[in-house]
């Protein structure tokens, strides 16, 4: 199964959405948390983010105050101008990008602010963090467009069988 796991992953992720939802409700979080680093590393040995960039095309990270301060300095803008140019406030009161794909995504799927990217981008898709298990709505969303998140949840379910 391992070599075939990522073949047609988007279709399989859609088909398995209910399975994932039920799995995340009942999974032994402590046991799964111990397995996340191994599956995370495996996933990123197989997934080349630069070939995908679905996260940058479909998702906006939260821009926290330290992110805004750091990035606005890097792009040579005052914080207020940076916010007005690139960000909106979402329903949860967080700063998020105005546009999709990400304004900093380049044609070759690299990030023009990679070294200074928001902490959400650094952590995405949370496959080596407790967020992956404790925030099922985020994980379900991520499995639909991130092959690494799909891979990790499939591996966790395989171990639980």
List the topology elements.
Layout: H1 9-15, H2 17-26, H3 29-46, H4 49-52, H5 54-58, H6 65-74, H7 79-86, E1 87-89, E2 95-97, H8 119-123, H9 131-134, H10 136-145, H11 147-160
Antiparallel strand pairs: 1-2
Q: What descriptive keywords fit this protein?
A:
161 residues, mainly alpha, 11 helices, 2 strands
Structure description:
The protein is mainly alpha-helical and 161 residues long. It folds into two domains: 2-56 and 125-160, no CATH class; 60-123, no CATH class. Helices cover 59% and strands 4% of the residues. It is built from eleven helices and two strands, in the order αααααααββαααα. It has helices spanning 9-15, 17-26, 29-46, 49-52, 54-58, 65-74, 79-86, 119-123, 131-134, 136-145, 147-160, and strands spanning 87-89, 95-97. The protein has a two-stranded antiparallel sheet with strand order 1-2. Strand 1 (87-89) and strand 2 (95-97) form a beta hairpin. Helix 3 (29-46) crosses helix 11 (147-160), helix 6 (65-74) crosses helix 7 and helix 10 (136-145) crosses helix 11. The chain is elongated, with a radius of gyration of 17 Å. The mean pLDDT is 95.
- Residue share in β-strands: under 5%
- State the distance separating the first and last CA atoms: 14 Å
Largest sheet: 2 strands, antiparallel
Find the count of extended strands (DSSP E, 2+ residues): 2
What is the helix/strand order?
HHHHHHHEEHHHH
- Unreliable segments (pLDDT under 50, ≥5 consecutive)? none
Mean pLDDT equals: 95
